[in-house]
Amino acid sequence: MNAAGPVRMACRRLRLLLRLRLPATRGGRRRALWVLMASSVLALLPATWVYAAGTPRIRAIDEVPQAPVAMVFGAGLWQGEPSPYLAHRLDAAVELYRKGTIRVVLVTGDNSRADYDEPDAMRAYLTKRGVPDDRIVSDYAGFDTWDSCARAQRIFGVKRAVLITQDFHIRRALALCKAAGIDSYGVGVTAKHDITWYAGGAREVFAAGKAALDAFVRPRPAFLGPHEPGVERALAG
Question: Are 92 and 61 in contact (CB under 8 A)?
């Protein structure tokens, strides 16, 4: 068989598949097309909501309004140290603290197992760069963006904050913290447009659906518990 043989065979199978899948009548095909278009529009609605809710609250690091607390969302560890993406977020928090824009840093991340502790790694990174330890508060159960926002408001009593995360994630963080009851502005940290950046951006399209559901249902975080006064004590100090 020559090289064109498999191609012709694949084309025949595709045509047969299309004949089997599409309605036989012109009206049926038109209805199928409308269903496809409507499904596409509905699938994009959550991403549109995230964009509309978050974009007006994004500010450059020199323009963000003062707030008592900065929230830094976890972004993974490399051999126990903050990943480059997480380090960029923490660097922005250090800069805001030095400028006096914020007074306390709430680090929120994953500590679901003993050998993986995002908040403590974030705390160590901040203290090495001059943020006093007593101005850092740790949330060890920030397993996703909604949990971080909901726990910040319900457990730590945060009412106003500056959110710090990558530029592709900041809109979703702002939308969810607003739904959780936090008045927030956001700093979208820029990053090199490498494979991780593009993967993160693509993930946001799908994550928007869960975000819209979380904002509507407002589910209980994976872990709740009693009020923790860490933020209040840090601000008082």
Answer: yes
Which run of H or of E encompasses 46?
A: helix 26-54
Per-residue model confidence as pLDDT tens digits over 56-83: 999 999 999 999 999 999 999 999 999 9
Place of tokens 């830094």: 72
Distance CA 177, CA 182 (A): 5
Contact call for residues 52 and 87 (beta carbons, < 8 A): no
Q: Does residue 116 contact residue 213 with C-beta atoms inside 8 Å?
A: no
Structure tokens of 195?
């494979």
Identify the DSSP state of 91: H
Q: List the one residue out of 58, 47, 28, 41 whose CA is nearest residue 208.
A: 47
The structure's pTM equals 0.80
Amino acid at 155: I
Residue-wise pLDDT tens digits, 116-165: 999 999 999 999 999 999 999 999 999 999 999 999 999 999 999 999 99
DSSP letters for 100-150: TS-SEEEEE-B-SBTTB-HHHHHHHHHHHTT--GGGEEEETB--SHHHHHH
Counting other chains too, the contacts that 112-118 makes at CB distance below 8 Å and 24 or more residues apart are 112/143, 116/77, 117/77, 118/74, 118/76, 118/77, 118/86, 118/142
4: left (phi over 0), alpha (psi -120 to 50) or beta: alpha
Give the tokens for residue 230: 């860490």
